[in-house]
Amino acid sequence: MFRAADSAISGMRQHQIFIDVTGNNVANVNTDGYKVDRAMFEDRLSQIARGANITPPPQPNGAINPAMLGLGVVTRAIQGEFHQGSFITTNKPTDVAIGGAGYFVLQSGNERTYTRNGNFNLDANGTLRAGDGKTVLGVDNRPIRIPNPSATPSSFALDQRGRVLGQDARGQQVVLGQIQIARFANDAGLERIGNTDFKQTTASGAPQAGSGGTGGRGEIYAGVVEASNVDLGRELTNLILAQRGLSANSKVLSTMDELADSVNQIRR
């Protein structure tokens, strides 16, 4: 009886986690560069109710399988899914997206983070920055900076390798910088730190940085941003499944409570 109650309690807790993760995905359905999370579960350690036995003669080669009692469920992992989201056209020259593998490299102080959210802007000094103020790094590990138009360039554009192309006073095309792209051996090993940013970990491996369109890194597209990869229909289905699982485990717990009351009544 108590094992069933413990299993039901664990089921309620884990289905609440399922709801929390799904709800966060739904909340970020319109967040540029957001990557959906998945809650993954596994059964808890089982208890042996009866061990395996060899049957006695005249069937010496037979066996009786062990009887195992499960003890509930636990969360194995909450893991991101990193497939590419759709592109949204903005026609804003500082909005960029990666078609393929890789992340933009951002820096704040001595900390580097990685993101798929290419909704960037230029500050008063011409430095390319993310929405939270982090600088966007180039392949030379320096911030991408667009010089003051009154100095030399009169316009700029980005090509698919992330090169920032401008024009000097004579109308000649010049390369002002090149956006750095980093890819990882194991995207699922990255640590979420908020603002659609990720941080490298031992599990993700070291970043393999370089220019877009080389070394397995995706190409860069200007005037578009990558939308969230949340499938709203799938998330709403998961929400229904999680709610039913929570309700079913709650029913098991209430049934165990009723049985306990019945046992107490018998003892009286």
Can you offer a commentary on this structure?
It is a single chain. The protein has 268 residues and is of the alpha+beta class. It contains two helices and 22 strands. It folds into two domains: 2-82 and 230-267, no CATH class; 87-226, no CATH class. It has helices at 2-27, 232-267, and strands spanning 37-43, 47-50, 53-54, 63-64, 67-69, 73-80, 87-89, 96-99, 103-108, 111-115, 121-122, 128-129, 135-136, 156-158, 163-167, 173-178, 181-183, 191-194, 197-199, 208-210, 219-222, 224-226. Strands 9, 10, 13, 17, 18, 19 and 20 form a seven-stranded antiparallel β-sheet that branches. A three-stranded antiparallel β-sheet has the order 14-15-16, with no helix packed on it. Strand 14 (156-158) and strand 15 form a beta hairpin. Helix 1 packs antiparallel against helix 2 (232-267). The longest helix has 36 residues, at 232-267.
What key phrases describe this protein's structure?
268 residues; alpha+beta; 2 domains; 7-stranded antiparallel sheet; 3-stranded antiparallel sheet; 22 strands; elongated
